[in-house]
Amino acid sequence: MKSTVENIKNLWFGADTPIRQYKIKLHPELWAACQRTSQEFSPPSGAMHVDEYRKSDKIAFAKAVLNELNQNRSVRKTSTYELAYSGLQSQTRKDYLA
Q1: From CA 31, how far away is CA 45, in angstroms rounded?
Q2: Residue 60 near residue 44, CB atoms below 8 Å
Q3: Per residue in 7-40, pLDDT tens?
C-alpha cells in the first residue's frame, strides 16, 4: 500500500474491518504516524469530533500524516548515515592503532 492521501484517509477514517486490520498490521509505520498525528491535529473546520470531520479535514489530516512520515524518514536516513560513518571512523582508528 502506497502512502497516499486517499490510502491514509481510508485507513484512518474507514470502517473497522478485517481487511483494515490486516493493512494496519502490514504497515505499522504508517499507522503509528496516524496515531501521532491524531494527538496534535486540529482540523481546519474546527470540528470537535472525528465524526464531524469534513472531507477537507480528512485530507488535511492525511497530508499531516504524510508530512510526519517524510520527517521521520529523513531523520532515520540521517541517523543511518551517521551510524555508518561513525562505524567507518572506528574501523579506521583500529587500523591506525594496530
Answers
A1: 24
A2: yes
A3: 999 999 999 999 999 999 999 999 999 999 999 9
Q: Are 59 and 43 in contact (CB under 8 A)?
A: no
Spatial separation of the C-alpha atoms in residues 66 and 72, rounded to whole Å: 10
For residue 33, CA distances in Å to 18, 37, 43 come to 20, 6, 17
**What DSSP assignment string belongs to the chain?**
----HHHHHHHHHS---HHHHHHHHH-HHHHHHHHHHHHH---TT--SSGGG--HHHHHHHHHHHHHHHHHHHHHHHHHHHHHHHHHHHHHHHHHHH-
Q: What is the pLDDT of residues 64-88, one digit of tens each?
A: 999 999 887 766 655 555 655 655 5
Output the nine-digit C-alpha cell for 83. 551510524
Q: CA 30, CA 34: separation in Å to the nearest integer? A: 6
pTM assigned to the model: 0.71
